[in-house]
Request: fold
Amino acid sequence: MTMLRFIGIFILNTIGILVIGCTEPEDPNEPVTAYIPSEISDRVYVTTFPRCNYNDADDLDEFSTKSLVLNFQAETLSGNLSGEFHCPSEDLGKVFRVEVDPLYDLNGKIVTGKEYFYYTFPPESLLEKTSNIERFYADSNQEMLVIDGMSNQTSPLQLIFAKYPNEKLGPFHNYYDLYTILDKDFLLQYKVRIMNDAYNQRFNLSGYDTQFAQAFKDVIAVDGNILKHPGIIQGFVDNNERVINFFKDHRQIMTQEEFDEINNSKK
Reply:
C-alpha cells in the first residue's frame, strides 16, 4: 500500500467517524420539562415549553434547576391579547429573558405575598401609598410600585421604573421590569415593552395593546404622580393576570415526594 493511498484511507475513515459522531439537530418545537423545587415548602414547580424557549436545556428533554431562564419575544408578555407565542428570533423583534425562581427566606424568615417585594427595604423608602398601591424609593435612578388588591388581581405585582430627573427620554424608558408571585412559592421576573406603532410596523406585528405602558410613561415624564392614575396601573395588573394564566397553561405543581420518585425511577 502506497503512503498516498494510506493517507487517503485514513482521511476517509476519519471523516466517516466524524459523520457517525454527528447528531441530528434538536427539534426547536420539541417540548422540554423543567422542575423547580421550592425553598420554603415541599412543592415543585413543573413547566413545559418548546425547547427553543429554554436558555439552559441543551439537549435534555427534562431537567431540574434552581433558577429557570426562558427566552421569549418582547411582545409575548407585553399586551399580548391572543396568548400566542413563537420560538424567539431577532427577526421578530427584541428577545427578552424571563426568569422563574423559588422564593427564598429573607433574613431567616419565610415571607410571602406583597411583603416579599419590600421586606428588606428600610421604612423610609416608602414614599406614598393608597389602599392598593405603594410607591418606594429603589435607588437614585429608579422607583418601584408594589400593587395588590386591584380589580381582578390574583397575585401581588412589583413594577420597577426609571425616574425622569432632568434627562431626555431614552430607549430604556420603553421598558418596565415586573415581578409577580406564581403559586405562592415562586417568583416570576419579566419585562413589558411599549409596543409603539414604529416597532409594530418594523416587525409586522399586530394584536398587542400596551397603551397602559405608554400612558404610564407619559405621566412619569410630566410630573411623576402615577398614584393619581389607578386606571393606568390597572392596565399593568390586567396584563400581569394574562401572564400568570399563560404560565398556568404550561405548568403543574407536584410535591417533593412525587419529584423524588421521578428522580429515583431514572437511576
Summary: Residues 3-21 form the longest helix (19 residues). The first strand starts at residue 31 and ends at 37. Helices lie at 3-21, 115-118, 197-202, 211-222, 230-248, 256-265.
